[in-house]
Amino acid sequence: QVQLVESGGGLVQPGGSLTLSCVGSGTILSMHAMAWWRQAPEKQRELVAVLGRGESVNYAQSVKGRFTMSRDNAKNTVYLQMNSLKSEDTAVYYCNYMPSRGTWGQGTQVTVSS
Questions:
Q1: DSSP string across 3-67
Q2: What is d(CA 111, CA 114) in angstroms, rounded to the nearest whole number?
Q3: What gap in Å lies between CA 2 and CA 10, rounded to an integer?
């Protein structure tokens, strides 16, 4: 039915870049505000970026200027372009509706290490 699948994570060196994707199935993402979250081991999930039903985006200060959230409605996909990655960006990244609803997916692991 309704599923959000994150992908695009991996191991990158500090200063590197990654683009995460969140593909919706059984749901039209353009009808929802969407958000990217991340969770480091033994820490609570934290909000990274929020994309409204329009095109307005709010970012956490820790990623502002480095991350860009966007959506491609034709592909029913939201993205998180991450540049100038730092070790503190290491976490499992999740996407979800805003406000959060339904079951969280498995996320995609981003590891920034030299």
A1: EEEEE--EEE-TT--EEEEEEEESS-GGGSEEEEEEE-TTS--EEEEEE-SSS-EEE-TTTTTTE
A2: 10
A3: 25
Rounded CA-CA distance 43/64 in Å is: 21
Residue 4 token pair = 């959000």
The answer to whether residues 35 and 57 touch, using CB atoms and an 8 Å cutoff, is no
Look up residue 20 and give its two tokens: 């995460």
Q: Determine the Cα–Cα distance for residues 3 and 68; give it in Å rounded to an integer.
A: 23
Complete edge-to-edge strand list for the sheet that includes strand 33-39: 10-12, 108-112, 91-98, 33-39, 46-51, 57-59
pLDDT band for position 7 (50/70/90)?
Answer: very high
pLDDT tens digits, one per residue of 33-72? 999 999 999 899 999 999 998 789 999 999 999 999 999 9
